[in-house]
Amino acid sequence: MTNPSPTSTAPAHAGAVPAVAPSSVFAAVDIGASSGRVILGRLTDGTVSLETVHRFPNGVVELDGGLRWDFDSLFAQVLTGLTAAAKTAAAKGETIASIGIDTWAVDYGLVNKAGELTAHPYSYRDERSKAAVAQVHAKIDQSRLYATTGLQFLAFNTIYQLATEKDLDGVQALLIPDLIAFKLTGQRRTEATNASTTGLFDAVAGEWATEFFKPLGLPTGLFAPLVQPGETIGTLLPGIADTTGLPADTKVVAVGSHDTASAVAAVPATEEGFAYISSGTWSLVGVELDHPVLDKASRLANFTNEHGVDGTIRYLRNVGGLWLLSECQRTWAAEGYALPLPGLLESAAALRPGGPVINADDPAFTAPDNMPHRIRAAVRNTGDVLPDRPAAVVRCILDSLAAGYARTLADAERLAGRSVDVVHIVGGGSQNQLLCQLTANATNKTVIAGPVEATALGNILLQARTAGTITGGLPELRRTARASTHLTQYEPHPSHAFHGN
């Protein structure tokens, strides 16, 4: 298949952009499952510019008998990044107004009364929680869980991880962004968009589903009080201020601390009938609603109802993501083949359409391992054969992701009673022209790609609104996002659409 040239647009001004004060500076701590950044965001003349001042790797490590996050190292990188942010701003005569933190969801650290971590946090990629699923469902029926929480079933959800803990008395569970905020401010809070990913959050009431705590043997005070995006968590502890060079009165503001919540807030949509794909290590595919969908059909389709900014519902499903591609590259590099991504994508784009596809969100692909081998094995299980060539494996991954996106969006339209005209791809995957074109083909919808840094942009926009630097609701935030972003548009070629089940 040839890769048609997409339509590129300059920053698109859709309607009046809210007035903003010049040189307002905010720091975003934006950490994914494979890397992290500290980014400065400046609002000037109605647009946001982003400057990465520190970038660092992140990943699970074998530690204390499981796959865990080395939180000490992670937090040290956050401090290094904030120090760099302070120096960068000071050199330009700027003052950082606040800090916002977003990370992946689900995982947590246990903190005792003295404020110490009892152990490094487990990663969702550890398999310990699988055995706890049946134990939880024996105590609370799965249909009852969904009717309250509206959460997609994933074996690594927080509720199942907590069921493996031996002793929770005297500790609190802080989700990863809340744990970072606690280490910065000394304040224990749980931000609501991330709380909604735990399986212990009432999707309608917007509060902890405490009815489930007792049957699961969880202490009622296991989680810290909730805060909403836009609330101030606290100011920096003296030691943190001294270490970073930031003023002690620098605020830490709650944003959409689940990175997808911040990314969706920055989707540069002008139309009501839009869908989004936040494409990175995982792909989050869905639509934005004003109420959850909690019926049986939604549960059987395994859709999730996670809270978003301004009381919205992120009605979506997790689909496999570019983790498959990055793991293949890691395996090939370990075997002595360091293959640059641009060349791989060019070779993959030259292959004919209609090749083999896999279920990209199969749990078999969750843990680190030899990914090319697992993908070829999955293709064999379908009765097909995948050539042992990197380009063929890459094309299989991207065809499979596009097909998964198409199926998921069709389900979202049906279950939510929504008609989608435009699909916005944000995050790292928006740079992958082949993936974007394949998605347009598979969905038979216009795809608009960008911004790449949607999560950081949403994080900054929410801080700016909290500071009063920008005003308005999500439409106004999205207009600013659109004005700040170079977008690329892809039109479908239906003859190449995927028609699988």
TrEMBL record:
Pfam families the UniProt entry points to: FGGY_C, FGGY_N
One GO process term, biological-process aspect: rhamnose catabolic process
CDD domains: ASKHA_NBD_FGGY_RhaB-like
SUPFAM superfamilies to which the protein is assigned, alphabetical: Actin-like ATPase domain
Keywords associated with the record: ATP-binding, Disulfide bond, Kinase, Nucleotide-binding, Rhamnose metabolism, Transferase
Similarity section: Belongs to the FGGY kinase family.
The protein's name: Rhamnulokinase
